[in-house]
Amino acid sequence: MLRPRIIPCLLVHNKGLAKTVKFKDPKYVGDPLNAVRIFNEKEVDELMVLDIDVTVKGRRPDFNVIKNLAAECRMPLCYGGGVQTAQDARKIISLGAEKVAISAEALENPSLISEAAEAVGTQSVVIVLDVKKKRFGGYEVFVNNGTRSTGKNPIEFAKQAEQLGAGEIVINSIDNDGVMKGYDFKLADSIRKAIDLPMTILGGAGSHGDVKELIDKFGVIGAAAGSLFVFKGKYRAVLINYPTPTEKEAILVNYQ
To answer: Which residues are catalytic?
Structure first.
């Protein structure tokens, strides 16, 4: 039986871990390898690591960092940042990641989706869409850490990515990033109705209740979060955390 996944999402910035609010003002929250070791102990479902520097700075993936993360990781690892070619995807998978996340380059060059799927298998190709609300309604996809609009509609591009061979779509709400007031369910629903692919929603989770509500509404889905799993309490003290087995059982009560 397929099950929902609860996924911490870590952002790499200046070689360390950072957390943003609406894709701005990154706050240092620790060392990536140390965070992976803690998440190992907590037996998380899956881990997503996104390097938010490399694409903006025109660099390729840092394969040494990926190698070290994958060697330490005892859960499925999805890595994204700077992927420009199918060869980049193949290298990342060869280093031990289970999935490779592609964003800006897939939007600029959609044929990369098919090329990457052929190189590493459909199940390993994850397309990340950073989505922002439009002023007069609807949504559009942004790249370069939310600084440049592509003019693309996330629903239409998600359907295109599915046709081209993507194995999963991650919808990341720029408006909800780091706000910790709940997911954008309207956005999630519009994408869910448009595609049959596995889908993960990121941006806005502030409590286990938010995660449970997402899963209750959409069933087998990836519930990803950043702030929820690196901060604790109203003062947002840095603490790497994850639902305990009892807490997770309560979240997944309908999927036992």
So the answer is: 130
CA distance 93 to 106: 17
Q: Please indicate, yes or no, whether the overall pTM of this predicted structure exceeds 0.70.
A: yes
Joined tokens for residue 91:
């290298």
Helix axes 208-218 and 185-192, enclosed angle (nearest 10):
30
Inform me whether the pLDDT recorded for 254 exceeds 80.
yes
Q: State pLDDT tens for residues 98-129.
A: 999 999 999 999 999 999 999 999 999 999 99
Contact 31, 154 (CB under 8 A): no
For 239-246, the CB contacts below 8 A with 24+ separation are: 240/30, 240/34, 240/35, 240/38, 240/39, 241/42, 242/6, 242/8, 242/39, 242/42, 242/44, 243/6, 243/208, 243/211
* Structural domains present in the chain: 5-255 (3.20.20.70)
DSSP E strands, the chain: 5-13, 16-21, 24-30, 47-51, 77-80, 99-102, 125-133, 139-143, 148-149, 168-173, 199-202, 222-225, 231-232, 237-238
